[in-house]
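job 3f2a | input accepted
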Amino acid sequence: MTFPSSPDTAVADQAPCNRDRAKIATLIAACATMGGIAMTITTASIALAGVQSELQLGIDQLQWVLNSFIVSYALLLLPFGAWSDRSGQRPLFVWGAVVFVVGAAVAVLAGDVTWLMAGRAFQGIGAALLTATAPAALTLAFSNEADRKRAFGYLGSSGGIGLALGALLAGAASSWFGWRAALALPIPVMIAALAVVCCSPGALASRPRSQRAHVPMRALLENRSFMLSCLLCLLFTTVWVALFIYAPLHMQAVDGLDPRSVGGLMLALLLPALIMPVVVSRLVLIFKISAVLIGGFLMIAAGLWCMHIAWTGATSRTLEVIGLVVCGSGAGALYGLVDYIGLTAVPAEQAGLAAGAFNVVRLLGDILAAIIPGAVVLYVVKAALASHIGVTNEVLSEIAAGDLRVVDHLGLTAQARAEFVDGMLWAIGALLTLTALGVVASFKARDSPDPSTRL
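job 3f2a | predicted structure (455 res):
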C-alpha cells in the first residue's frame, strides 16, 4: 500500500524516542476515547429500563434518550472532521473531552427527560470532536503498514472493551445505585484520555500548517473503496447495536431478569469483540480481506438464527448465549477491519474528513438500530392489540418498549407478552436481511485499499 507523502509528518520533527512516546500516547488516547464512546452506548441501553421506570416513558421517548446523543454526534462529525484536517487534531481533541464530560454530567443529574436528552445531545457534540480526531491521528502517527494494522486492531478491540465494560458495570451500577450511576461510567475514561494527551505534548500532534488543505467531500464520494467500507459499516453496525438495545430488552421484559443479570449475559456478546479485532489484524495477512468480511457477516447470521430459535417458545438460555457469542465474534471480526479499510483508503490529508464521514455512517447505523427493530415490534403489537378497548397508542408504545404490566388491569398481559415476543422474532428477521446484504457487498472488497485506486 502506498500513500502520497509520509503521514508521519505530524511528529517528524521530534527525536526518535519522543516520537515513539508520542505514538504510544496517541494510541492510548485514541483507544480510551473509542472505548469511552462505546461504553456510552451500552450503559445507556442497559439503563433504559431504569429510566423508563422512573420517568414513565414510552418507546418513542426511550428511543430519543438514545438518539439525542446519536443525532448530535452524527450531524457534527463531518464539519468537525474537515475542521481537524485544517486545524490539527490535538486542540479539538482536548475540547471534545471537556464537552463530553460536561454533557455526561448534565445527563446524570437530569431531573426530567428534557434535561436528560439535552445532556445526551451535548455529550454527542463532545463525542463528535473526539471521533473526528482520534482515529485520524492513528493514520498520521503510524506510517508502517504492519504497525498501522496493529493500531487499528487495538482500536477495534478498545471499542469491544468499552462495550463489555459498559454492559458489565452498567448492570451492576443500575442494580446497586440506579440508572444515573450507569450513565456516569464513561466520565472517568474520558478524563483519563484527556490526561494522557495533556501530559504528552507530542500526542495527537498537528501537521505543519503548510500540509493542511481543504479537501472537498467529492473526493471521498468518488473513492469507491471508502464508500464500500461505509456501506459495510452501516450494515453491520445496524445489526450489532440493535442486539445491544433489544436483547437486554427481551431478557428483562420476557424473562424478568434484573439489570445485573442482563449485564452478565450480555458479556457473551461483548467478550468476543475484545479479541477478534486483534485476531483479524493477523488473519488479513493470510486470507483475502473479502473472505474475512464474508466470514464475519456469516457468523452474525448464524448467531441471529440461534437467537431466533432460542426466543421461539420458552427461551433456551444456552442457545441464546451461543447466539450472542457467535454474533459477537462476527461483529468483532468486522469492527476494526472496516475502520482500517475506510481510513487507509484515503491519503493523509483527508484523514479527518474521512474519519468524520465514516463515523456519520456508523452513527446512522446506530440510529437505524434503534428505529428498525422498534418499528417492527410496534407494528406487530399494534396489529394484534390495537382493537382492544382501553389500549391506546401510548399503551401500545409502552408494550413495545417492554413494559408488559401496563395492560395488567385489562387482563391482556399474556397476549401482550406473546405479541412482544413475536415482534422480536420479526425484528431478528429484519436484521438477518441486512446481514445477507453485507455478505453480498463483501465480495467487492479489495485486499489492498489504496487511495490512488478505485474499484
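job 3f2a | The first helix runs from residue 16 to 55.
job 3f2a | closed
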